[in-house]
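Human:
Care to share another protein and its fold?

Assistant:
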Amino acid sequence: MTGFGKQNMALLVVREADDIGAALQRALDTASAEERPGLERALALTAEAGAVPDAELRGRWALRRMASAGYDGPPGAVAGVKALRTAERGLSLLQAVNLSKDAEAVRAAEPAAP
């Protein structure tokens, strides 16, 4: 189905890393020797942030929203989906399930706690 119905994702990932990177590069081009290390580091961090996939950003967001609702269990569980919909009342069930899948992938990629 096409269009803007409830089945579409409600979470839009906005990226401005390219614009920020270009501004940092312009600043670096004219920077003094004292400013260069900080600007180079900022440019590298911006590039790293810009390389993160949208699904990972959505998953991180979903985990934060679940945590804000007091939930810290498995993101893909029914309780996780419910917590997400409690935190973000405008989400449809399908949207919350899809976001919980992104959150599950993020959680699975995290290194195990010692």
Notes: The first helix runs from residue 17 to 29.
